[in-house]
Design goal:
Layout lengths: L3 H11 L1 H6 L5 H6 L1 H13 L3 H39 L3 H31 L3 H23 L2 H20 L4 H12 L5 H19 L4 H12 L7 H22 L4 H20 L12
């Protein structure tokens, strides 16, 4: 389960991209109303009062303006690369390049999100910190309950989640494609180590907030945690490498099975996203791609 705090950071980081992943339709509308959705999400999750929202609103608007200018070219370039690869067929080199681009996008977006969220978190009062800690405990219990489920159930849930994602891009999967998803996803690393690490970092964040840390100190903490992985356990670093390899294998294997209709749907999806992220820019451009 994705932590609501991380969901908030994703909203702060990605603007339209995050709203798209959360299921909003109409990219132009979603992006142009991103400040409203983010403010409402933050208000609900953190229990903010009107004065806190008023103090934070200029920071949010500035971050979204920076995102429009500096980050949309990276998203446009990613979807341009992806639609070109989809037209000719994905190779392992293609997928590695796309994953490299995603890593750059992730890091840039979460650096922006850390700077945007930090003053908001620093402004929480004692009761709001207590409430946030209680929510963290609830989420940790949900993680523990998930980790305690029988392995077959955990694998089946993971496979279905990946299959659902593939269906959004491709349409309905045939039996062979579902088998590929199952073969690849079933061997992915388990989440228990990630749950433990995330719980530790959330407790460290609460302790930081209780000490009255400055926005600058909180931003550094969030950046170290979510961007630089400064103290990530070695097991999680290995899991990330395994995940990257598995995603490469999944895309290349599925590519060989695409029907004409599936490939066309995929190309249309990717091309449409490239177009949207270009249109959202005042001076449309794509960031350079290193690979």
């Amino acid at each position: 389960m994705t932590s609501p705090l991380v969901s908030l950071l994703r909203l702060l980081a990605g603007g339209a991209a995050a709203l798209l992943l959360l299921g909003c339709s109409g990219m132009q509308i979603a992006y142009n109303t991103a400040d409203f959705f983010i403010e409402r999400y933050a208000e609900d999750y953190l229990g903010l009062d009107s004065a806190q929202m008023e103090r934070w609103s200029p920071t949010l608007k500035s971050a979204l303006a920076e995102h429009r200018q500096a980050e949309l070219p990276y998203l446009a370039a990613f979807f341009d690369s992806a639609q070109n690869d989809a037209r000719k067929g994905f190779t392992r080199a293609d997928v590695r390049c796309l994953l490299d681009q995603l890593e750059v996008i992730y890091r840039r977006h979460f650096m922006l999100a850390a700077g945007t969220a930090a003053p908001l978190l620093a402004d929480l009062d004692r009761s709001q910190i207590d409430a946030l800690e209680a929510r963290f405990r609830e989420e940790a219990q949900e993680d523990a309950d998930d980790a305690a489920r029988p392995e077959a159930q955990r694998v089946a849930k993971r496979v279905e989640r990946y299959a659902d994602n593939m269906r959004w891009w491709l349409g309905e999967l045939d039996a062979r494609q579902r088998g590929i998803v199952r073969d690849v996803v079933a061997d992915l690393p388990e989440s228990a180590t990630w749950y433990t690490y995330r719980d530790r970092k959330r407790r460290e964040l609460i302790a930081l907030l209780r000490r009255g840390a400055s926005p600058e100190r909180i931003e550094t903490f969030l950046t170290d945690w979510l961007v630089d992985y400064s103290d990530m356990p070695a097991a999680l670093e290995r899991s990330q490498i395994q995940l990257r390899s598995a995603m490469t294998d999944l895309i290349v294997r599925l590519d060989a099975t695409f029907s004409d209709a599936q490939r066309r749907r995929l190309i249309d999806r990717l091309t449409g996203l490239r177009r949207d992220f270009l249109r959202l820019q005042r001076d449309p451009q794509m960031a350079p791609v290193a690979c």
